[in-house]
Specification:
The structure holds 2 protein chains of 2 kinds.
Chain A: H1 2-30, H2 35-55, H3 61-64, H4 71-94, H5 104-108, H6 110-124, H7 130-146, H8 161-177, H9 180-199
Helix pairs in contact in A: 1-2, 1-6, 2-6, 4-9, 6-7, 6-9, 7-8, 8-9
Chain B: E1 2-3, H1 8-27, H2 33-56, E2 60-61, H3 63-96, H4 105-113, H5 115-136, E3 138-139
The chains are: A mainly alpha, B mainly alpha.
Chain lengths: ~210, ~140
């Protein structure tokens, strides 16, 4: 089980870099014709790889937060997620988010992949406590691969930090709720909240 | 000839009901075949309304042909309710991955046995939708 989970995790980590390399060689020549392939690849990376890992039994559904929650746990998790969204709304109204934030679909499909990392982490150590944080470590590796260091020293671009903040926030929220479905909804909801507030005129402009 | 009403707002409301319902049903621990049949009916109805709005919304049509078309769409939609319910069951089983699956093979057989009843229900709903469309259409 752990070997299969490690293979799927390594695939999820390496796939974007491999695709980026191939895209760099072919993308320019093929022009817009390969754009649907790129779009499909993004969704497959977010949803397809974790789903294949799940149905082949590499990771367990309760470890990734897909099943096993009682009605009470659902209600408690929903309350926590609603509180987080409310806090985000209040904070974003006080201070606008200056960095680009992914749309609801793209924000939501990060969650299944991060859940795969948590599932792999749960196989390595105690699923309740250590699993999510090992998953966070794997997620940070993915983030570092996606935002490689500049010429000297590790200094990612300013646009890279929101994705790391989303990963940290997601881990804390998963730790509290243990519910992937609510995480997906919260990511999409957060994106909609921030987009809605950024469309409003600011208090200075009003 | 009648002018079929623009049905885009119906499509919006249909998906506002169908998408969250499907999301929560797949997420929540529920093992009742009746619930999955109801959900499948909602999803199939949303697809049917979308198709009708896409190809017939706002156009001129002969009354009898419009009623036959809506009955046909209703029949196809009703006949699809059971197979779509089976797909939903399989998706839920694969996602939840319980030691004992959420649904047994006899549950799946029970769902498929309801196909003729749902096909009949689909014809009647399609006819009803057609008549509502006629009532709200403008004769031209």
């Amino acid at each position: 089980m752990i070997v299969e989970a490690a293979i799927w995790t390594a695939t999820a980590l390496a796939a974007p870099e491999v695709l980026r390399f191939v895209w760099g060689r072919w993308g320019g020549a093929a022009g817009d014709r390969l754009q649907p392939v790129l779009s499909f690849g993004r969704w497959f990376h977010g949803l397809g790889i974790p789903y294949l890992a799940l149905i082949t039994g590499a990771v367990a559904a309760p470890d990734v937060g897909l099943s096993g929650q009682s009605g009470t746990e659902w209600l408690r998790g929903a309350g926590i997620c609603a509180a987080v969204l409310g806090l985000a709304w209040v904070a974003a109204r006080r201070r606008r988010v200056a960095y680009p934030y992914p749309g609801p679909g793209l924000a939501a499909i990060d969650e299944p992949r991060w859940a795969l990392y948590r599932g792999t982490g749960s196989l390595l150590a105690d699923p309740r406590w250590a699993g999510p944080f090992i998953g966070l470590g794997i997620g940070v590796i993915e983030w570092a691969l996606r935002h490689p260091p500049r010429v000297r020293g590790f200094r990612p671009s300013a646009e890279a930090w929101p994705s790391l903040a989303r990963l940290f926030g997601s881990t804390v929220l998963f730790f509290l709720t243990r519910n992937l479905w609510l995480m997906v909804l919260t990511q999409a909801g957060l994106s909609l909240v921030l987009a809605g507030i950024n469309r409003e005129p600011s208090e200075d402009q009003a | 000839m009648i002018r079929i009403p623009d049905l885009r707002w119906v499509v919006r409301y249909a998906w506002m009901i169908a998408a969250p319902t499907a999301f929560f049903w797949i997420a929540y621990e529920d093992r009742s075949p009746s619930t999955v049949m109801g959900l499948s009916a909602i999803v199939c109805a949303a697809f049917a309304v979308t198709a009708i709005a896409r190809w017939r919304g706002g156009i001129l049509a002969e009354r009898r042909r419009w009623l036959l078309e809506t009955m046909g769409v209703g029949l196809a939609t009703g006949a699809l309710v059971a197979p779509v319910a089976v797909v939903l069951i399989l998706v839920k089983i694969s996602l939840h991955s319980h030691g004992t699956p959420d649904f047994t093979t006899s549950d799946i057989a029970q769902v498929m046995n309801r196909l003729p009843v749902w096909a009949l229900a689909g014809v009647l709903c399609g006819e009803a939708l057609g008549l509502i469309g006629v009532a709200f259409s403008r004769p031209e």
